[in-house]
Design brief:
heterotrimer; A mainly alpha (216); B mainly alpha (547); C alpha+beta (323); C: 323 residues; 5-stranded mixed β-sheet; elongated; disordered C terminus
């Protein structure tokens, strides 16, 4: 373990450094909550304004795929937690394995997302000039309201996916450092904090799934 | 050094090693992780932005000398005031005090070696620069004519100008602001020197703590809102355009949810500077320390609950208008508390009239007027008449320029010896403080009257009866412009030729004055231990820690 | 006050004195506190100026009594101003029943106005002195704001919805009309004037010019042309609610919700019929979005409002559901 090198010059102790980093991550997550909060607020306003159209539009989403994806994502949270646990114990190979599995599950999630997006694309449900309410049996003003639903759908799931994509290089970087033996009982904060981030991204999905797929 | 601490060391010497000469070359600046150097990077950038935004203001005031829009076309005029607003708000006022003075001073005041996340601090500056680059790109490639408020559906459907690069610039700069706030919060929580309890913190730190909370909780909302505007404009998604089933007023809710608290991002740090100046130059502990500290937090919290007072004529319901009006009055109270406490601090003090104190006097006067005219705008029935007129313009310039810029300049003078190790020329500084005060009032006071007369904002062409007041305002602006240029000259001059400053020239309390001027790279030779309350001016200044 | 350099705007509506009263009260408050603070600063600065370099004044921690004083007094003043402002605001938002209605459509960069008697005006509005005038505002493109400083009146014209403002002019004359919400290139040219006339003069003005078609008449024409009559007239069976007397009444919707059939509701029911279905009817009406202009919508609504039925036929409407 090379713990001495983990301590940055401006901290007094590893403990102070760890506490600071942890607080930093929580503050970062607080701003993320507000970031998604703006989207959820917009969603809520329109859901209340156009309840029937939103219900009708959401029928086109594939609940099975969504549910499967939820399961995949929760599993990735589990593997992430196991990676954090392994890091705290300093089990080098286990950390790497769990981290890679987490990336794999995340990629599976995005793969399913691509399939779903493709379906929307084929049915002209991507907002914009080519949007059509035909498949939803909606026209006129209602077609426009359905477009708002799909605008929100793409904005929310897209930004969620972007958060996962940002997570991948971080997870892979951690795996490299873990392989080099950087983490152990005294210093595993980077893995822990990435875990926090990853769980947060999962929780966002836990809210997105019922809001977009389930409420009719 | 003798044990009986004399107030001044006879002939101060420049320290041999300090943060400015610890390393040389352009890369030592571009890749620095020293909060003091990053503060100087910000100082250079926000100064450029300030004078650029000021140049736009000059053109605006020139145009408004005569009633017919004869100097520039309407299109150009709209781009001028938009550029002025975007640059000044997002690239000067929001970062000015926190990213320059806050960045430099918070670790020093806490007795820390640096901010908690030095690399993120540097990243903040790069994000700021990238944001500024996009914004400037927008200004030269087609300009931006939406006003800094980006109201929909104009911004998403009708404007033919460079909305997207400007939006991108603000989005990126927003994350710079978020990361600065994050850094401050963590640093203030976790890196205080031994003995430095929360209620021993300088009020400057309290003010920045409150500011950081707003940056963390407000900025992401405007970031996502701007993103939605971009989606609607580029991909024709439907969010705010009524022709796509959207609600344009929802944009205003989301926008002001951040942009009203953003006003407090601009004024709270200024209030923090004020508390330092008033105590030092009246040589007294601040009157009502806990009330000033807590009023900062109260402003940060209440500031989030008043956004819809920008929308009293936009068609929100009468009852929600009443709620937002009442809450808006509440946010005035903590500001009033601060003004009264600063004034009371002077009572039985030992008051000197050095330049930073002149700025502090100016601040109190202008902030009082700016704050009280806010009541006009919070009062529902009256707001109907004055909203979207020059009354609003005058009001927020009294707060943002009359107060924030005054405090920024006051703070810059106050800490200039600490930052550069040299003193600025006192006589010139006093002159420029007077010129700025007079120029400011002549520029913006007539605008209150114009506003009540009914001259709307963002008017390029106006009826003739408004001309006299507009000419007065433009005349004042030219005085103000000169006032701002003088410090530029003598600050630059003093960096090379100024008298060498001692560690604690004023002298003042606070840990930042107990290290050399300029400080060493790690701020303190050893970790300071604090065993006294803040602003203890009853005893002679303490010796610097060994440097 | 001299004309080239006014310091105070003309008062020309019944609402103006109320707004100005509050303004002068706040001016007095502002003057009192600004002068007070400035005087205290000046006094302290002179009296307690530093006399020698190592002076050390005594410590004063603070005073709870003072803190409470300068918290509670400003609070009390604020609440007085709040209530006062709210009272004025209520008056501004309650148009009297006997008002003349004017339809206003903002469009980059002009104001299009139409009287209920049919006269159309652009950037100019003729109104009689002493009569309340109610404006129904909307916009064809971006947000505009209808601002008449002399009347202390301002209201946004928001695309896709209606807003209401009113005034009662008290002095004949010509007054500025401004667009107060930034709306693009020619924002500062989106101006006009309100011409306030003596009632007799106003009558003459109304009768001048070609015989206009009133919005009600125009609306009736569109009501037929757009085939509204096939479902919404007495002889058409039960496909759609009969509209006689529906305007301004309470209407019970599917699901039990009750709404007032005001301009916004009527507008929504034309452009987005399925949003609020009246109890007992099917959502079969097609949308008219895109087929009718904002002008036509206002005329249709004026026509519907003119249908004064003795009994409300809209389902579930309780007796005497007038506003």
């Amino acid at each position: 373990m090379s713990n001495a090198s983990a301590l940055q010059h401006h901290f007094e102790s590893l403990e102070q450094q760890k506490e600071s980093s942890t607080l930093g991550m929580w503050v970062f997550i607080a701003q993320e909550v507000l970031f998604f909060g703006g989207l959820f607020a917009t969603y809520t306003v329109y859901r209340v304004k156009y309840p029937e159209v939103f219900a009708a539009a959401s029928h086109h989403l594939n609940v099975t795929l969504g549910a499967a994806n939820t399961a995949v994502l929760i599993s990735s949270s589990l593997t992430m937690a196991l990676a954090v646990h392994a890091a705290a114990l300093g089990r080098r190979k286990q950390i790497v394995a769990w981290l890679l599995l987490t990336v794999l599950l995340g990629a599976a999630f995005l793969g399913v997302k691509v399939v779903e997006y493709q379906d929307k694309f084929e049915h002209h449900l991507v907002p914009g000039p080519s949007f059509s309410g035909h498949v939803l049996h909606l026209e006129g003003e209602e077609e426009k309201q359905a477009q708002i639903y799909y605008s929100l759908y793409f904005a929310m799931t897209g930004l969620h996916a972007l958060h996962m994509i940002i997570g991948f290089p971080i997870l892979l970087g951690l795996a490299v450092f873990a392989w080099k033996g950087r983490y152990g009982p005294e210093w595993s904060t980077p893995v822990e904090l990435t875990g926090l981030y990853w769980h947060f991204v999962d929780i966002v999905w836990i809210f997105l799934f019922p809001f977009l797929y389930l409420i009719h | 050094m003798s044990a009986a601490a004399a107030p001044l060391v006879p002939a101060p010497e420049f320290p041999k090693r300090h943060y400015l000469n610890a390393d040389y070359g352009i890369w030592s600046w571009l890749f620095t992780r020293d909060h003091k150097r990053i503060a100087l990077l910000y100082l250079a950038s926000v100064t450029v932005m300030f004078f650029l935004g000021g140049a736009y203001a000059v053109l605006i005031r020139l145009e408004l000398v005569t009633p017919p829009g004869d100097l520039v076309s309407s299109e150009t005029y709209n781009k001028l005031f938009t550029a002025h607003g975007v640059i000044m708000v997002f690239f000067f006022l929001i970062p000015a005090i926190p990213a320059v003075l806050g960045n430099f001073l918070i670790p020093l005041m806490l007795g820390a070696k640096d901010l908690a996340f030095p690399r993120i601090n540097l990243l903040s500056w790069y994000l700021y620069m990238i944001g500024a680059f996009f914004a400037l790109f927008a200004l030269v490639h087609g300009g931006l004519d939406t006003g800094w408020t980006f109201y929909t559906p104009y911004s998403t459907v009708f404007s033919n100008s460079a909305v997207i690069p400007a939006a991108l610039g603000i989005f990126v700069a927003g994350f710079s602001s978020i990361l600065t706030g994050l850094n401050f919060i963590v640093t203030i929580h976790k890196m205080r020197a031994p003995g430095l309890t929360w209620f021993r913190l300088p009020l400057f730190v309290w003010a920045h703590y409150a500011t950081s909370l707003i940056q963390i909780l407000g900025t992401p909302v405007v970031a996502v809102t701007i993103l939605l505007v971009a989606f609607e404009r580029v991909f024709h998604f439907g969010f705010f355009d009524p022709n796509r089933g959207g609600d344009p007023v929802l944009f205003q809710h989301l926008f002001w949810f951040y942009s009203h608290p953003a006003v407090y991002i601009m004024i709270l740090p200024a209030m923090g500077v004020m508390s330092e100046l008033v105590t030092c130059f009246s040589r007294k502990r601040i009157f009502g320390y806990p009330f000033i500290a807590m009023s900062s937090l109260a402003i940060a919290v209440l500031g989030f609950l008043v956004w819809a007072h920008h929308m009293f004529v936009a068609g929100i319901s009468v009852y929600s208008a009443m709620i937002f009006s009442a809450l808006s009055f509440l946010v005035a109270i903590p500001s009033a508390i601060k003004v009264f406490n600063w004034t009371a601090t002077l009572y039985r003090g030992s008051i000197s009239y050095q330049t930073p104190m002149l700025y502090a006097f100016g601040f109190i006067g202008l902030f009082t007027i700016g704050g009280l005219t806010g009541l006009f705008l919070a009062a529902l029935g009256l707001d109907i008449h004055v909203t979207d007129t020059y009354f609003v313009v005058a009001h927020f310039h009294y707060i943002m320029v009359g107060s924030t810029v005054m405090a920024y300049l006051g703070g810059l003078h106050f800490w200039w010896p600490k930052i550069t190790g040299r003193l600025y020329p006192e006589w010139w500084a006093r002159v420029s403080a007077f010129v700025i005060f007079i120029g400011f009032n002549l520029t913006f006071f007539p605008q209150f009257i114009l506003g009540y007369l009914g001259m709307p904002r963002r008017y390029h062409y106006y009826p003739e009866e408004f001309q006299v007041l507009n000419v007065m305002s433009s005349a004042g602006a030219s005085i103000l412009g000169v006032g701002y240029l003088i410090p530029m000259v003598y600050f630059a001059w003093s960096m090379r030729y100024g008298k060498i400053a001692p560690a604690n020239p004023w002298p003042a309390t606070g840990l930042e004055w107990r290290t050399s001027s300029p400080p060493p790279p790690d701020n303190f030779r050893e970790t300071p231990v604090v065993d006294e309350e803040a602003y203890d001016y009853t005893v002679p200044p303490k010796e610097p820690f060994l440097v | 006050m001299f004309s080239g350099f006014p310091l105070f705007p003309e008062q020309a509506s019944s609402l103006a004195p109320g707004v100005d009263g509050l303004y002068f009260f706040l001016l007095a408050i502002t003057a009192f506190f600004s002068v007070g603070i400035a005087a205290a600063l000046a006094l302290f600065a002179m009296r307690y100026r530093r006399r020698h370099a190592d002076e050390r004044p005594g410590e004063i921690e603070g005073s709870l009594a003072l803190e409470l004083t300068w918290t509670l007094i400003p609070f009390a003043i604020c609440m007085v101003v709040f209530v006062w402002g709210a009272v004025v605001f209520f008056a501004q938002n309650r148009p009297p029943d006997d008002s003349i209605d004017i339809n206003v459509v903002g469009k980059r960069w002009m104001w299009k106005l139409q009287h209920m008697t049919g006269q159309r005006e652009i950037n100019e509005l003729h109104v009689p002195v002493g009569r309340p005038v109610k404006l129904n505002l909307t916009s064809e493109d971006v947000i505009h704001s209808f601002f008449v400083p002399a009347f202390r009146m301002k209201k946004d014209a928001v695309p896709g919805r209606y807003s209401v403002a009113w005034f009662r002019a008290t002095k004949p004359g010509k007054y500025h009309l401004f667009c107060a919400e930034y709306c693009g290139t020619e924002h500062s040219r989106m101006i006009g004037q309100i011409v306030v006339m003596e009632p007799a003069e106003y009558q003459t003005w109304l009768q001048g010019g070609p015989a206009p078609v009133s919005p009600v008449a125009a609306g009736e024409k569109f009501f037929t042309e757009l085939n509204c009559v096939t479902c919404h007239r007495g002889d058409s069976g039960t496909r759609g609610p009969i509209l006689d007397g529906v305007a301004g009444r309470r209407v019970r919707l599917q699901g039990g919700q009750v709404v007032i059939a005001d301009e916004s509701y009527l507008r929504e029911s034309i452009v987005n019929p399925s949003a609020k279905i009246v109890e007992g009817y099917q959502p079969i009406m097609p949308t008219y979005q895109g087929q009718v202009t904002e002008d036509t919508l206002l005329q249709l609504i004026a026509y519907i409002q003119s249908l004064k039925g003795p009994q409300a036929i809209a389902a579930g409407s309780p007796a005497g559901g007038q506003r």
